């Protein structure tokens, strides 16, 4: 058996991350933190000695569907039928590499997020991070045109990504990765839910409204003194500002008559304990004008509980340049989250 390792990269790595989310591929931590140029499989003889059968579900390793792998020195890039070579750094922080099978490695989820920052713009990197830390997953991470699964387990959390990026200083892509990682939050249930949340709390310089950062899909207990007012002891808001507002994204799933009734009863319970509920739909986000109206409603609800500081923030939103930035962000996020099901989750 060769002592060389094959390290997944590029489109093959995208598919591997998707397969891990789907449960059709397994990996485990590897202790490797350095990939010397001579340790990376790149010659025909190296590649022939590695059993790539575990990758059969994600790649054919043919000229029409090549296997994308990494090397750590430019001169190691070769022309080998069925393979494409990418350039990776030689040194990684601990925990950067995972093993799929003997001699086959892939970057960890946090490392993947960092590496993708080399090719993605700010909004795409944001949405990728929200997906990795969320409860939905595309077959090709971050690609809205690929199939999306819902109610899956996150594969990492925003704090882990930020900690990893901080330790990866010096690696190409770390600055844009850090810029986006700062604004990631956990537990989004759909791409459109991510979009709706991001537009509220991103700062104005990134096209957002600069509202306080909410929590997504927490389990909130009804206060004991108010349990006589509700039919449940807990509720799970989509986008939640603690004690101030429950912002719900009602996807197509919520059009079912039984679900409509359930949503009404749930909203009545939440309002009964003194928390306003705003329900957003695909229509609410379909144009910049509708999204702006929704954002103003969210701001007013927050200001009712937060007072003067929030009122000042709302007045600043009248600036035409800031409005232009919000419209640009909305247009971009709308396009980037427009998948086949438009983020229909729970």
List the helices and strands and how they pair.
Elements: E1 6-7, H1 10-22, E2 28-29, H2 44-48, E3 67-71, E4 83-87, E5 97-101, E6 104-107, H3 109-116, H4 122-132, E7 136-138, E8 148-150, H5 158-167, H6 174-181, H7 191-201, E9 215-216, E10 220-221, E11 234-235, E12 239-241, E13 245-250, H8 257-272, E14 277-281, H9 288-306, H10 308-316, H11 320-336
Parallel strand pairs: 1-6, 3-4, 13-14
Antiparallel strand pairs: 2-5, 5-6, 7-8, 9-12, 10-11, 12-13
3D architecture notes:
This protein is α/β, with parallel strands linked by helices and 346 residues long. It has 3 domains: 1-107, no CATH class; 109-187, no CATH class; 188-336, no CATH class. 37% of the residues lie in helices and 14% in strands. The chain is built from 11 helices and 14 strands. The strands form 5 sheets. It has a 4-stranded mixed β-sheet. A 4-stranded mixed β-sheet has the order 9-12-13-14.
Intertermini distance:
48 Å
Report the β-strand fraction as a percent range.
5-15%
Q: How many strands appear in the DSSP assignment? A: 14
Mean pLDDT: 92
Radius of gyration: 23 Å
Oligomer: single chain
- The number of distinct structural domains comes to 3
Please give the count of helices.
11
Residue runs with pLDDT of under 50 for 5 or more positions? none
Q: Can you summarize the main beta sheet? A: 4 strands, mixed
Instruction: Kindly name the structural category.
Output: alpha/beta
Sheet with most strands: strand arrangement? 1-6-5-2
Topology as a string of helices (H) and strands (E): EHEHEEEEHHEEHHHEEEEEHEHHH
Fraction of residues in helix: 25-40%
Form type? elongated
């Amino acid at each position: 058996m060769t002592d060389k390792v094959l390290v997944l990269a590029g489109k093959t790595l995208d598919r591997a991350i998707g397969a891990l989310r789907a449960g059709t591929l397994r990996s485990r931590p590897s202790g490797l933190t350095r990939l010397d140029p001579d340790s990376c499989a790149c010659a025909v003889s190296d590649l022939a000695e590695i059993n790539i059968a575990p990758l059969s579900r994600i790649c054919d390793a043919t000229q029409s569907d090549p296997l994308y792998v990494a090397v750590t020195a430019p001169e190691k890039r070769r022309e080998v039928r069925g393979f494409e070579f990418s350039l990776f750094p030689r040194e990684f922080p601990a925990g950067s590499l995972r093993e799929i099978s003997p001699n086959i490695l892939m970057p960890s989820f946090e490392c993947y997020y960092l590496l993708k920052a080399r090719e993605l713009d700010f909004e795409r990197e944001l949405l990728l991070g929200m997906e990795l830390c969320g409860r939905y997953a595309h077959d090709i991470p971050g690609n809205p045109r690929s199939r999306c699964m819902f109610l899956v387990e996150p594969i990492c959390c925003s704090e882990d990504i930020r900690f990893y990026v901080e330790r990866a200083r010096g690696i190409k892509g770390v600055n844009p990765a850090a810029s986006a990682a700062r604004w990631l939050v956990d537990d989004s249930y759909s791409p459109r839910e991510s979009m709706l949340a991001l537009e509220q709390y991103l700062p104005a310089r990134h096209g957002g409204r600069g509202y306080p950062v909410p929590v997504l899909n927490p389990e909130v207990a009804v206060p004991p003194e108010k349990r006589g007012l509700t039919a449940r002891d807990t509720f799970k808001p989509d986008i939640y500002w603690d004690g101030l507002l429950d912002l719900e994204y009602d996807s197509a799933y919520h059009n079912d008559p039984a679900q409509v009734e359930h949503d009404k009863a749930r909203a009545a319970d939440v309002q009964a304990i003194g928390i306003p509920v705003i329900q957003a739909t695909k229509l609410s986000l379909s144009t910049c004008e509708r999204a702006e109206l929704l954002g103003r409603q969210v701001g007013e609800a927050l200001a009712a509980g937060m007072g003067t500081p929030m009122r000042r923030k709302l007045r600043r939103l009248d600036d035409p340049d800031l409005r232009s930035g919000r419209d640009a962000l909305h247009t971009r996020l709308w396009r980037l989250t427009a998948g086949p099901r438009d983020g229909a989750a729970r």
